[in-house]
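> forwarded from #structure-qc
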């Protein structure tokens, strides 16, 4: 598990916001996912590449609720993901424990991106990311996550025991990678820290209060 603080440049953060906003109002754009029982998730979601259904935990070509096709993953996003994995591996090579030797992250070319937007009262319950293929999970092919906008309180742990979870704040520009042995770590967004968006990002984009999170994965 690697956290790269303030990794995404201010310009790239602003481009990501603008790209997601443009895609978000089109076909396959942001919606508030719900479960069969009628409960709604506490966030807005948009999928790129393939659709992920939070109710069935399945990937499909079209979104079940409205038959829309998810937009493509923007080439700029691919470039940042590829570079982030390379930089994380360079870091592991230099700073990792000797037991980490030869155990860098597998490379990953994403075919799916899940974009979440949290308002200041948004949250996401404890989960593992395990809807991907058995092969991808077994190899520990990483999930790469971008945080943009307001900061989030993020909990993670090896088990469901919430009391034992570690906590970290994810701020605008941070990149978090779950790969290798950490691929199936339990995690949650327990809250959004209001008014913590960098002023320059707010001014450059006019983004509404809240937080954008993009997670990239390979099915
Ligand atoms: C979020 N992130 O940060 C939700 N999943 O809003 C995730 O669920 C996540 O950050 C897998 C790997 C990294 C993540
Ligand atoms: Fe997740």
């Amino acid at each position: 598990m690697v956290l790269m603080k303030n990794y995404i440049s201010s310009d790239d953060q602003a481009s990501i916001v603008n790209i997601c906003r443009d895609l978000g109002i089109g076909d396959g754009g942001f919606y508030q996912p719900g479960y069969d029982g009628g409960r709604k998730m506490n966030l807005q979601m948009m999928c790129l590449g393939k659709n992920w259904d939070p109710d069935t935990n399945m990937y499909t070509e079209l979104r079940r609720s409205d038959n829309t096709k998810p937009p493509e993953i923007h080439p700029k996003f691919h470039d940042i993901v590829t570079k982030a994995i390379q930089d994380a591996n360079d870091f592991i090579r230099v700073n990792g424990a000797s037991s980490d030797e030869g155990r860098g992250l597998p490379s990953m070319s994403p075919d799916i991106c899940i974009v979440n937007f949290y308002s200041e009262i948004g949250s996401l319950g404890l989960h593992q990311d395990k809807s991907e293929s058995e092969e991808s999970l077994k190899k520990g092919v990483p999930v790469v996550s971008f945080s943009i906008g307001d900061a989030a309180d993020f909990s993670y742990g090896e088990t469901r025991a919430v009391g034992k979870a570690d906590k970290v704040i994810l701020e605008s520009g941070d990149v978090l990678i779950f790969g290798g042995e950490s691929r199936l770590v339990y995690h949650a967004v327990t809250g959004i820290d209001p008014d913590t968006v960098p002023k320059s990002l707010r001014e450059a984009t006019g983004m509404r209060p809240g937080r954008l999170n993009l997670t990239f994965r390979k099915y």
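QC bot note: The chain has one domain: 2-217. The mean pLDDT is 95.
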